[in-house]
């Protein structure tokens, strides 16, 4: 058993197995699409999306420029017609206009008349789309642009537009001024131009997206990804050996990455110091386990000697023997409690319905064995049931009873003999078991530390561990132990259990 205690004292001194396992960090290395690749794709996608938003008005503007060039050519032909003495265009000029602009027919409007400048010899029977640019707005122009791109083959356009080169404002009464221009031309050249423009815009957008994404990629990699990978490697290395820390040096940046680096450094120092302290405490625990083993054997021999002294014929010697025996008993209890507290935590509770009065009576008899002169009174209802682990509850009540008996026995009572009282009551969904003694009570300055191991307030049992162990057992069953405010002398402990 002593070898087991020594082995248990060593537990926790080695490398931690479950603190920061790097398995998830290793798995992260197999991710197909990292942060940098995602950022590059997102940047490229956002730029392409922005280009897509501005494409309709841009394509509409390109279409308007193409139509404006044809209308200007038609207006030039009309001006040339006005300059001609016989107000007729030569066949050469008409053919040149048709070749360069693609127009099949051209007419201009003057005041209340329409003048045909040139037209094909035969009547045209073909699908035709009329576009009156004198009464259009930007949304119509964008919609018509997409209509041109997906137009059927062989369709022609009939364009009506205001002149752009005339100095006279629209509505001038001068009959020589051109009020509108009418031109008929095939739609295929416009369709070809728009598709060529769209292809160029798409290729240019890809180039801009790739360039922008690459620049953002390099900037973010240097500012964020690279220091993040550095911290990730530091965390992975630290998780494998936190007790042998290689100090992480922050870069000194003043932004969020710099704050994260400083926080990582502080965490490493704190955790590493905790593990070094844990190693020292484990070594100290091993030494205490060995000392307790030898001390317990020595105290057992001393206890046997005290029993021999107790049978001495000398009244002075026999009178001092009980005190010596109690002191030796407390010392043995201290050694055994220290060993028990250093072992692995108590087993999980096995909850069942328990008759509280019978269990409490057995536990109190065990706890008061050290002080048979202390009387006790069990006022718990015989039919009261609680849900608890019988062994754990027995240890709790025995421990509190032993503490109360020890306090009453050590300090004595002025008003008769010591008395310990047990009662229980159901409150909401809990059963409160109250253990009261008429001893000296608990000083106010130690109440806050009553349940801390080896604290002054936990020393009613002489070991500094009894109340801490009892509260751990109660918490494992879903309950608690509290010290109630006392009325007069004595201490009042309440064990809270599920009903």
Give a description of the structure.
Helices cover 54% and strands 14% of the residues. It has 499 residues and is of the alpha+beta class. Among the domains are: 35-197, no CATH class; 349-498, 2-Layer Sandwich (Heat Shock Protein 90), CATH 3.30.565.10. α1 (2-10) packs antiparallel against α7. It is rod-shaped and about 165 Å long.
Structure summarized in a few sentences:
This protein is α+β, with helices and mostly antiparallel strands. The chain has eleven helices and twelve strands.
Strand order of the largest sheet: 2-1-5-4-3
Shape category: rod-shaped
Structure class: alpha+beta
The total beta strand count reads 12
> Counting H and I runs of at least 4 residues, what is the number of helices?
11
Gyration radius (Cα, Å) is 50 Å
Low-confidence stretches: 1-31, 167-173, 458-463
Helical amount: 40-55%
Major β-sheet profile: 5 strands, mixed
The string of secondary-structure elements, in order, is HHHHEEEHEEHHHEHEEHEEHEE
Describe the secondary structure blueprint for this structure:
Blueprint (H helix, E strand, L loop, with lengths): L1 H9 L12 H6 L6 H49 L7 H11 L3 E6 L2 E6 L9 E5 L5 H12 L6 E6 L18 E7 L1 H53 L15 H55 L4 H27 L10 E4 H12 L7 E4 L6 E4 L1 H22 L7 E9 L2 E8 L28 H11 L3 E5 L7 E7 L1
Parallel strand pairs: 3-4, 7-9
Antiparallel strand pairs: 1-2, 1-5, 4-5, 6-8, 9-10, 10-12, 11-12
Helix pairs in contact: 1-7, 3-5, 3-6, 6-7, 7-8, 9-10, 10-11
């Amino acid at each position: 058993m002593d070898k087991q205690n020594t082995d248990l004292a060593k537990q926790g001194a080695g490398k931690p197995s479950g603190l920061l396992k790097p398995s998830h960090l290793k798995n992260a290395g197999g991710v197909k699409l990292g942060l940098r690749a995602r950022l590059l794709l997102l940047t490229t996608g956002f730029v392409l999306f922005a280009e897509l938003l501005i494409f309709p008005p841009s394509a509409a503007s390109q279409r308007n420029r193409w139509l404006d060039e044809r209308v200007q050519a038609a207006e030039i032909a009309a001006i040339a017609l006005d300059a001609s003495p016989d107000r007729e265009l030569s066949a050469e000029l008409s053919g040149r206009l048709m070749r360069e602009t693609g127009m099949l027919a051209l007419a201009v409007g003057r005041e209340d008349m329409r003048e045909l400048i040139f037209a094909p010899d035969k009547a045209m029977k073909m699908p035709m789309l009329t576009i009156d640019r004198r009464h259009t707005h930007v949304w119509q122009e964008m919609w018509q642009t997409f209509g041109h791109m997906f137009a059927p083959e062989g369709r022609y356009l009939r364009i009506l537009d205001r002149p752009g080169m005339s100095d006279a404002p629209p509505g001038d009464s001068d009959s020589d001024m051109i009020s509108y221009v009418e031109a008929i031309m095939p739609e295929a050249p416009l369709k070809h131009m728009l598709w060529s423009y769209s292809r160029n815009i798409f290729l240019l957008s890809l180039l801009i997206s790739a360039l922008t994404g690459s620049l953002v990629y390099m900037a973010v990699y240097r500012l964020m990804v690279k220091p993040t990978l550095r911290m990730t490697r530091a965390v992975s290395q630290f998780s494998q050996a936190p007790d042998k820390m290689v100090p992480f040096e922050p870069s000194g940046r003043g932004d969020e990455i710099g704050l994260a680096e400083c926080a990582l450094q502080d965490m490493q120092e704190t955790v590493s110091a905790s593990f070094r302290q844990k190693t020292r405490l484990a070594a100290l625990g091993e030494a205490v386990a060995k000392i307790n083993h030898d001390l317990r054997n020595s105290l057992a021999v001393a206890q046997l000697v005290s029993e021999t002294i107790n049978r001495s014929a000398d009244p002075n010697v026999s009178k001092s023997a009980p005190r010596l025996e109690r002191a030796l008993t407390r010392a043995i209890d201290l050694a055994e409690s220290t060993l028990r507290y250093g072992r692995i935590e108590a087993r999980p509770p096995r909850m069942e319905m328990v008759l509280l009065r019978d269990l409490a009576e057995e536990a109190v008899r065990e706890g008061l064995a050290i002080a048979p002169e202390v009387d006790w009174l069990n006022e718990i209802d015989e039919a009261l049931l609680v849900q608890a682990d019988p062994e754990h509850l027995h240890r709790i009540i025995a421990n509190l009873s032993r503490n109360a008996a020890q306090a009453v026995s050590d300090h004595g009572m002025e008003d008769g003999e010591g008395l310990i009282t047990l009662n229980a009551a159901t409150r909401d969904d809990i059963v409160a078991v109250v253990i009261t003694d008429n001893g000296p009570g608990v000083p106010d300055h130690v109440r806050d530390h009553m349940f801390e191991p080896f604290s002054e307030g936990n020393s009613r049992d002489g070991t500094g561990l009894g109340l801490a162990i009892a509260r751990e057992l109660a918490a494992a069953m879903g309950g608690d132990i509290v010290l109630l405010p006392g009325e007069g002398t004595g201490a009042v402990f309440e064990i809270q259990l599920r009903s």
